[in-house]
What we know:
The complex is a heterodimer. Helix content of chain A is 31%, strand content 20%. Chain A is an alpha+beta fold. In chain A, helix 2 packs across helix 5 (161-169), helix 15 (428-434) runs antiparallel to helix 16 and helix 16 packs antiparallel against helix 17. The longest helix of chain A has 20 residues, at 465-484. The N and C termini of chain A lie far apart (64 Å). Chain B is α+β, with helices and mostly antiparallel strands.
Amino acid sequence: MGASEPENASGAVRFVLDGKVVSASGLPPTLTVLEYLRNVAGLSSTKEGCAEGDCGACTVVLGELAEDGASIQYRPINSCIRFLPTIDGKELVTAGSLEARDGSLHPVQQAMVDEHASQCGFCTPGFVMSLFALYLQQDALDRAAVTEALSGNLCRCTGYRPIIDAGCRMVRYPPPAHWSRADSQSAERVEALRTLARVRANGAALEVAGFRAPRSLDELAAALAAAPDSLVLAGGTDVGLWVTKLLRELPPIVYVGEVAELRQIRSTERGLWIGAAVTLSAAWPALLAAHPELAEQGTRFASPPIRSSATLVGNLANGSPIGDSIPALIALGAELELRKGRHTRRLALEHFYPGYRQKDLAPGEFVVAVVVPPPQAGRKLASYKVSKRIDQDISAVCATFAVVVQNGVVTDARLAFGGMAAVPARARHAEGALTGRPWSAESIDAAGAALAQDFTPLTDLRASAEYRARVAGNLLRRFYLEQSLEGEPLRLAAVRGAAS
Amino acid sequence: MSVGSAQAHDSAHLHVSGEALYCDDISLPADTLHAAFGVSRVAHAHIRTLNLDAVLASPGVVTVALPRDIPGENNYGGGVHDDPIFADGLVQYAGQPLFAVAATSYNAARKAATLAHVEYEELPAILDVRAALAAESYLLPTERIVRGKPREVLARSPDRLQGSITIGGQDHFYLEGQIAVAIPQEDGAMLIHSSTQHPSEVQHIVAHALGTRSHAITVQCRRMGGGFGGKESQAALIAAAAAVLARKTRRPVKLRLDRDADMIITGKRHDFVSDYDVGFDTRGRILALTLMLASRCGYSADLSGAVNGRALCHVDNAYFLEHVEIVSHRCKTHTVSNTAFRGFGAPQAMMVIEQIMDDIARMLRLDPIDVRKANFYGLGERDTTPYGQQVEDNVIHEIVTQLEASSAYRDRRRAVAQWNARNRVIKRGLALTPVKFGISFTATQYNQAGALVHVYSDGTVLLNHGGTEMGQGVHIKVAQVVAAELGLPLSAIRLTTTDTSKVPNTSATAASSGSDLNGMAAQAATRVIRQRIVDHVCEAHGVRPEEVAFADGQVRVGTQTMPFAKVAHSAYMARISLSSTGFYRTPKIHWDKATNTGRPFFYFAYGAAVAEVALDTLTGETRLLRVDIVHDVGTSLNPAIDLGQIEGGFLQGAGWLTSEELYWNEKGELQTHAPSTYKIPAVSDWPDEAHIALLAASPNREQTIYRSKAVGEPPLMLAISVFQAIRDACAACLPAGTLPNLSAPATPEAVLRTIDMPRREYGT
């Protein structure tokens, strides 16, 4: 156990922490990064608030060698649900890493002190690390960028105002010697990660007991064909909770995060090809570039620490009825690329979910990528998310609508909803009520009425069945109003500031 | 001078680097065991059998603790002894601890704790307030306050309205969950590290549970990762269970509740229902009011008597109620026992009267601000509360006058009306609500505090006091007081862990009283030492006491000045004691329990807020657009800390009234027990525009520490403005004069239910 230098490097998880290469072996594969820090390394600066990636107290920053091999990308993650073997080859930075040797605080920390941005202080290391990631990513900050960066961190004491102010202020301090933007890209840091990369460069997969991280698609396919009962792990932002909250023992894990082919986003003639290891923080900007109408879904999807671990395909393959990206991609007509052994097939996303938490996947089969068709001229597109809170909340209802209107008549309608049934699904009756009809309020009302035939939603802690049904119809109304009414703000997010 | 300046929190530099140590960060002895509770899965039942074979057989398990393993009393209730540490035969809520298991690791204990085989004989369960009222299921006797002839005057009032409101509870959601470490000491003693607002109560309860006496138990708390009332009485359960296991195993035991366990097992803010009948004149002035409050206490008394007592004393808020009857029912339900939470019953009571103010205005077509003004306590007249205390320090008029102007209330009222006339989908709402909050524990005996101050011979100061630090800044404020008394820089003062072996018989750090009480006690201790130093230098240098002054780390003695350190050393050499305790008890207060009258509060803290919201009529979602606050903290000890309490309290209150919904299923199981399901405000919930001001030049009329005022709780109730602004926006969706029937929290669903009446479809 612990940080000794093993002879067989493929049997140890190796990463950089505070300027040293840590080589951890003999640890359970589902040990979280947080458990490693607190219980193995004895570093208590990172806190546990919820063990489910929802409060951000455990936020740390991961540095990863960019594709060019010459720079490092730093992103925040929730250490409480991230399994240690998945940070192999990366640099781990915690709130305890930032202070200079002479004890002076990093600008992020100093700004927090100067703005009186901590009270009880328990959430503070997490806020510091979310801000630190932002500090390294951007040098000009506005309030919107700061609140976006902090959307996955909960503070119960301050009301957030001083933290937002600290975030806006931190870039105005002189760059520190330790962990300035320049220092974060120093030759020394880059070289340390390159050295770690070379350990795996000849294709030797990380393999520790119960955990295997194939380096290529063929290797992944072979591993799953040989051991079809394995658990396919991507970002782990749901699987992590099976361990930390449900206390489950997991089957052997096959991790897709190191498969080079799956980390790609490609423009193909069928559309945007997004590999299974592409994180939400990479996938959503690409999706929004092609389909800006999905902004409400894309910007409110989870939080930066979740988005930089979780993958888009993971959200699809997990098959939760409340996976927010699923209705959006169903409405766009996305397809999955599936593979089993050497055999590859394609399947429309909307046909992937036969029932609650069920997927049309054979043993040993896995999702390679999702392919999202390109924008279609003349198509009206919009997405909506309804939840109790703006940031980091699970939808009561979410919806994406794609409707083609020609000469005032609806020729094609794809109305996809989440939160309305056991699986995200298209509203076929509502689509039928719209298709072939004039694009009018009457048709929309008819479609809204037809939703009753499509869905029998549940009552649960997020909303009642009646509310979900009512709101689903109202979202169709909003869609129509947005396409036909001008000059009146129709979404809450569009209303800023007091009346005057 | 350190008092009155915006000093940083004493631990700020430790917070940001993660070096601040919480209970979970304490280095543990190698043989420490980890514990977890096994809990009931049903709300109300006799336990037929409790089979723990599988628990004991689970890997890593060392032992379990059951009621029979408790050497002393199986109770953690501080007042009424009705809170078993482990349920003994009868379970009264889903989630109630039945046993605790100790294992070699945290996860081994958590896993094992789920493996008990329990057979229940289920009993009928009462799961909410209305059901409890119907069954007359009362935990404590109903209390009432009656003044004047409310029923008679109601009957002849020119206008009258009846209404109801349902107000939800709230989980504290401190970021650091409940935790304790119990470490056995020699000769039957026990050291407890506890995340608690009330170390003395933890000490007493652990002593009773272990069948020993207080002097054998030491409780320490350096800091909490948030408390908000949730660690006032509830921490004793965790500490007691850890201590019982530590006693049984003779090993240190750490019990840290994971987030779900914390939210399921421990108590919350009481949810209330209220029915009322109010009579008023044409200006909207209340002539008579009868009002019923009923709260969900849960299965046991805990602090419910005091919480409901405070509710009773805050129905009036800032308004004179001449003829009034207030009835307070304390309902027993088979749910978790509700407890202290910032505001302590007052927020719920104030919600009711603020709804009444708005609805009177709606009925009379007046601006609600004018109805409120018509009802404010007067200056020198109409100034006695329903419980008989005279309101002597009323500043609500100047606060509201100032806020009305600074927020451009009247202009914005017109602008909101114009917006609502033009827009069909997004509506706006605006509201101004005041706060008047009584400061002191309503139980008179708790209004005392102690401190222990040491001056070392190098001139440094170690400060102990009975207050606990939960982020509110009590330590820095008290340190500022001590620094000011000795004319020292803050760097000369070091704060220590709150420790029952240093300052005994302390009260909970609660009721916003931390700085008021402990600041005075520390000041008293410091003044004793300072006087001894003065006497010493007078003797040594032949000067008179008025020729001695302490400032800037120096002591002026006649015409010369010398460093404080030098004087301290000189006093030491002259064998002068440089250590002292200090004590304080709040003057003037008294309370007659039999008649519910007296002067329960030393003084009142005031404030007011204007909130503007936007409401999406298609989904019921709302958003806070702007808030303006003027709040009274007397002469601030530390404006930065006070501002933090105001902002933080306001948003916490806004969460309570909007997104924070506690949802129990039909079996009485709480379904919202983690941040994924229970939504406290996040960063986007702070409004884009906020103007927060401390009321200037307004020293406390009473002799409090440097004429400051308590600030912990009062700002939470400023958030009632958000709720009333949402109701205002709802009203804009309804036929004129309709009173919106909105329950709290105003979730999107609650809002949509309120406004979703048959109306003309959009766009047709």
